[in-house]
Amino acid sequence: MTSGYKNKIEVSVRAVIFAQGKLLVCSPVKKNYYFFPGGHVEFNELLEQALKREMREELGIKIKQYKLVGIVENRYTEDKIKHHEINFVFRVNINPKATALEDHIDFLYLPKKIVKSSKIYPINLQQEIIKNPKMNNFFWIKSD
Fold first, then answer.
1. What local confidence, expressed as pLDDT, does residue 1 receive?
2. Which of 1, 14, 104, 135 has CB atoms 3.0–4.6 Å from 38's, for a disulfide?
3. Class of domain 6-141
4. What is the longest distance spanned by two Cα atoms in the chain?
5. What is the pTM of this model?
6. DSSP bridge partners of 12
7. Would you list the domain boundaries of the chain?
8. Within the chain, which residues score under 70 in pLDDT?
């Protein structure tokens, strides 16, 4: 471990949601980047349970149509903490009128043509969506 740094392994679920040709993303209020809806898997929680809980907490919806489409490993450093995320990515179908329930996060739909030029974390998942928007084949993306 590097002096002054802490290490953190995180297991998360991420939802890729398209509605009317647009991608649903989240953004911390007053920030200029986006991320995919979802969050951390809690201890003793199955991936499916975590996905359903996160969609209920963030958007106030019960999801019924979803499919595990890939895994994205992502490593980064933030505030002297080294993160290693393991993201389980689900393609999710929802009603496009879902609204945000959390005050610190904004949700918006980005047109596909804007997805390419936006900053959506994890970036390697954004790149996969640009390359393979239908997500027909299971993917496993490893961070450098």
1. 42
2. 14
3. alpha beta
4. 48
5. 0.88
6. 40, 87
7. 6-141
8. 1-5, 96-101, 144
